[in-house]
């Protein structure tokens, strides 16, 4: 006993604790030993407190099939259940790294500990505060990294499509512009103003972006008619699909045929098809490049890389739109129809833009996770006389009544092991609280709504 009491007196946290209280701790406790190996896994009940005397234990979580160490504790550290802690079950894996010896105190002794050993209790609670601060910081960082990982995976997919379009469009443009087909025949053509006007009118109509796009079935029928007409007139049929895509009809070709000479007709059709194909390629490159630019801007705005993280006026619609852009791939993957109902003239609030983005991300991402087999998500914003409201309503299975009160508890999660850490909504609640806001949840099968309310900035006179 004296050896253990002497060790406890050497622990920095317990140096100010009277010896008789340490003796009580040793006499009421039990010394245990464990060999290296897994000791606890998430969900197991904790019914004792312990201070390590020898050896090391390691706490870790498994995320995306990867082991992520939360902390490694050695001799002199308190672990497991502590007085006044809300943590009743183990939120992580606990593994003994080296042969362990520990002094344990069962939870049913906590009342006597608190009543008769004030200094010892104060020291343990102080240690618990440090543990919670460290543990929460690591978990919140992991949660943010998990969110960023999900977003980056979706972003990579989103960027891949427009990037491929740019490459494809550039290749087609190079092939079209670099083609020397019919160059000799085209170079000998002399066109009258009337002929140029006729061709120009067809080209302008074909490249009119305001013209409604022809449905696919109708384009196929038109392409077949054009192919037949070109074949009947012993002309090259390669441009039929290009003409059909731009709404050029056999009537348009007949008008050009009647206007220009017979020798000029085929070279002009080739030139017209190449011009339209080049127009297609340029439009595809322009559209894809614009999409890439929008995605990059969304990432920049989402992470607030271009702004100092200070309290400032925030238009929450901007962050919500950026977040939905980042999660768009996941919505499509889960076959979820997303409806945006964002008030255009929404008043600003005062807040941290980056932290608020965590609110939108966690709530929307959770809603999408709840609808892995499809559904609908309605994201709304609107204002009241003195507040600004964000609402996310999904058609998922709902949150069971026994869990609705616990979803904001630290480390509580209904997701499978490795899919969630249980701190996402705890983080949401903390961020909302920092912004003097309020969050409410109502749920039943087929309708779950998260309602977040923030005080708005008073209107200027």
Instruction: Report the total helices.
Output: 15
* Alpha-carbon Rg, integer: 34 Å
Overall shape? elongated
**Strand percent estimate:** 15-25%
Helix content: 40-55%
Query: What's the CATH topology name of the largest domain?
Result: Heat Shock Protein 90
- What is the string of SSEs from the N terminus onward? HHEEEEEEHHHHHHHHEHHEEHEEHHEE
CATH superfamily of the largest domain: Histidine kinase-like ATPase, C-terminal domain
The rounded distance between the terminal residues' Cα atoms is 74 Å
CATH class term of the largest domain: Alpha Beta
Low-confidence stretches: 416-423
**What count of domains describes the coordinates?**
3
The tally of strands reads 13
Q: How many strands, what sense, and barrel or not for the largest sheet?
A: 6 strands, antiparallel
Overall mean pLDDT stands at 81
User: What CATH architecture of the largest domain do you see?
Assistant: 2-Layer Sandwich
Structural class: alpha+beta
Topology of this structure?
Layout: H1 2-10, H2 19-28, E1 30-34, E2 37-40, E3 48-63, E4 66-73, E5 78-80, E6 93-106, H3 110-116, H4 118-178, H5 183-187, H6 193-206, H7 216-232, H8 240-245, H9 250-259, H10 262-303, E7 312-314, H11 316-326, H12 328-333, E8 336-342, E9 349-351, H13 353-369, E10 375-383, E11 387-394, H14 401-404, H15 424-434, E12 438-444, E13 447-455
Parallel strand pairs: 8-10
Antiparallel strand pairs: 1-6, 2-6, 3-4, 3-5, 3-6, 7-9, 10-11, 11-13, 12-13
Helix pairs in contact: 1-2, 4-10, 6-9, 10-11, 11-13, 13-15
């Amino acid at each position: 006993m004296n050896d253990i009491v002497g060790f406890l007196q050497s622990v920095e946290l317990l140096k100010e604790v009277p010896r008789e209280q340490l003796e009580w701790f040793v006499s009421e406790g039990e010394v245990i030993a464990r060999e290296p190996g897994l000791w606890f896994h998430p969900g197991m009940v904790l019914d004792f407190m312990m201070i390590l005397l020898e050896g090391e234990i390691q706490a870790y979580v498994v995320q995306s099939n990867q082991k992520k160490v939360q902390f490694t504790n050695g001799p002199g550290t308190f672990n497991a259940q502590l007085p006044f802690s809300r943590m009743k079950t183990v939120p992580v894996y606990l593994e003994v790294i080296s042969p362990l010896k520990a002094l344990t105190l069962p939870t049913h002794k906590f009342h006597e500990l608190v009543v008769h050993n004030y200094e010892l209790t104060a020291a343990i609670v102080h240690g618990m505060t440090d543990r919670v601060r460290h543990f929460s910081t690591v978990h919140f960082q992991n949660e943010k990294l998990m969110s960023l990982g999900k977003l980056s995976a979706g972003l990579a997919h989103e960027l891949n499509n427009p990037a491929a379009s740019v490459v494809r469009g550039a290749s087609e443009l190079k092939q079209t512009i670099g083609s020397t087909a019919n160059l000799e025949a085209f170079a000998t053509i002399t066109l009258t103003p009337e002929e140029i006007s006729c061709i120009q009118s067809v080209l302008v109509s074909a490249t009119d972006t305001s013209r409604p796009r022809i449905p696919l079935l109708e384009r196929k029928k038109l392409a077949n008619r054009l192919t037949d007409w070109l074949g009947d007139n012993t002309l090259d049929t390669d441009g039929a699909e290009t003409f059909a895509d731009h709404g050029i009809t056999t009537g348009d070709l007949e008008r050009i045929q009647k206007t220009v000479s017979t020798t000029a007709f085929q070279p002009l059709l080739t030139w017209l098809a190449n011009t339209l194909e080049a127009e297609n390629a340029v439009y595809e490159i322009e559209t894809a490049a614009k999409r890439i630019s929008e995605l990059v801007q969304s990432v920049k705005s989402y992470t607030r890389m271009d702004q100092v993280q200070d309290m400032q006026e925030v238009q929450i619609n901007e962050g919500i739109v950026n977040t939905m852009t980042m999660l768009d791939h996941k919505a499509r993957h889960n076959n979820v129809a997303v409806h945006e109902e964002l008030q255009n003239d929404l008043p600003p609030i005062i807040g941290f833009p980056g932290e608020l983005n965590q609110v939108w991300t966690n709530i929307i991402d959770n809603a999408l996770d709840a609808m892995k087999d499809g559904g609908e998500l309605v994201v709304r914003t609107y204002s009241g006389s003195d507040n600004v409201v964000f609402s996310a309503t999904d058609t998922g299975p709902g949150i069971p009544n026994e869990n609705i009160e616990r979803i904001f508890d630290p480390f509580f999660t209904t997701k499978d092991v490795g899919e969630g850490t249980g701190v996402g909504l705890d983080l949401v609640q903390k961020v909302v609280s920092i912004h003097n806001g309020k969050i409410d949840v109502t749920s039943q099968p087929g309708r779950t709504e998260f309602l977040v309310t923030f005080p708005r900035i008073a209107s200027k006179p």
